Amino acid sequence: MPHRIKNYVLVAKPGIVFGNLISAAAGFFLASKGRVDGLALSATLIGISLVVASGCVFNNCADREIDRKMIRTLNRTLARGLISPKIAVSYATILGLAGLSLLWAATNLLAVVIVLGGLVIYVGVYSLYLKRHSVYGALIGSLAGAAPPLAGYCAVTGRFDMGAVILLSIFSLWQMPHCYAIAVFRFDDYTAAAIPVLPVKQGIAAAKNHMVGYILAFMAAAQMLTFWGYTGYSTLAVATVLGLSWMYLAWSGYKASDVRLWGKKLFIFSILTIFILSVMMSIDFTAPVPPEMLLSYSP
Question: For the chain, what is the mean pLDDT?
């Protein structure tokens, strides 16, 4: 029985769920500006986590044949046949419905639509088609990666404003060099599985150029949090340092003698970057204007 439970936990990719949980919390805290509703926060994070877990299980179902061709993934639960695809689909469906129902009850329609949209893009558009057929799969899939922080933000605000646009930009742009770094680090795996990701399809040199461009765009988007008044100058400073450091590491790839090792370092640093930025968004929000001050400016 413990082994069965472990299989059901692992097939939901708890590491990915946890990472999305952090970004969703960042979006929620950023929008809350210090006025956190604990019950709404708990419901939002649990609901998003359940839907993300659902997407991961569906992804494992879709990728089980590919996973058997890659050293990194050949021991995954479905690749080894430890859970039947039929049961896994039922499990994923239950997780998804439970998460969406909780979000529907505790948040708002916009947050539900965003999370559902992310699930459809990740499973239906990316996992079942683009991952196998298009070099632009990661670009479209990045929208799904931005859904959790965006939903966390909109669960509080109930509207799609400039803050939502900035979050969508930050997390979508971050996904690209992050994904390409994995593909460089695991180049042989992606080649063996015939996955047309950019480093495989157009070469690692082309991927390096794309990484530099995306990191520059990511840094600019992260700075918009402060320029548009959503965070303080501490976040601006941290985002700038992280962006420049990430850029330096990416630029060093042009002279790297071991591109696999370079890709691994870039991958690890990308995770550190988004984690630190998520923390800063959570604690360095700008305080809302008190009602009495608004009254004092009334004509």
Answer: 93
Is 5 among the domain residues? yes
Contact by Cβ (8 Å): 234, 179:
no
Q: Is the pLDDT of residue 298 over 90?
A: no
Cα separations (Å) of 181 from 86, 171, 207, 257?
33, 16, 9, 16
DSSP string spanning 125-149?
A: IIIIIIHHH-TTHHHHHHHHHTHHH
Distance in angstroms (rounded) separating the CA atoms of residues 91 and 7: 12
Q: What is the pLDDT of residues 283-294, one digit of tens each?
A: 998 765 444 433
**Pair 99, 28 in one domain:** yes
On whether residue 80 sits in a domain, the answer given is: yes
Structure tokens at 128: 């079942």
Cα–Cα distance measured from residue 256 to residue 183, given in angstroms and rounded to the nearest whole number: 16
- Total tally of structural domains belonging to the chain: 2
The amino acid present at 164, given as its one-letter code, is: A
Report the alpha-carbon distance of residue 12 to residue 54 in Å, rounded.
Answer: 7
Query: What does pTM read for this prediction?
Result: 0.92
pLDDT tens digits along 260-285: 999 999 999 999 999 999 999 999 98
Q: What is the CATH number of the domain that holds 45?
A: 1.10.357.140
Asked whether residue 239 is domain-assigned, the answer is yes
Q: Of 136, 159, 182, which residue is a domain's last?
A: 159
Q: Which residue has the tokens 């991952």?
A: 131
> Of 119, 97, 21, 10, which Cα lies nearest the Cα of 60?
10
| Cβ-contact 231, 281 below 8 angstroms | yes
The candidate with the shortest Cα–Cα distance to 278, out of 181, 152, 185, is 152
**CA distance linking residue 247 with residue 239, whole number of Å:** 12
